[in-house]
Write a structure and sequence with these properties.
Elements (H helix, E strand, L loop, with lengths): L1 H5 L1 H22 L2 H7 L6 H31 L1 H25 L6
Helix pairs in contact: 4-5
Amino acid sequence: MAQLWEQDRVWLVLGNGSRLRCFIMGFVYGPLGVWLPSLFPPRIRYTGVSVAFNAGGILGGALAPIIAQALTDAGGTSLVGLYLTMAGIFSLAGLKLVGKLMPDKTE
């Protein structure tokens, strides 16, 4: 095992993996700074963005692992896969709904 960590290749792979994760996270979190404020009128923009972002982080970051563990205990990892698939479908539906409910700002 010690020989594995002495090789420069392992650090190269770990470093490139970290760079790739950060690059992908930029695609996810980069547009949020523009998109979230556009959902709220200027009078409540800061509060709306703050509540939406933090509530999403709390609900997604706290409840998802708890639900996944309960599903794994109840029926295995296939239920977790189904749960994640359904969460993705609901997320896409929510994005579609937000697009329909937002006023057109091109006029």
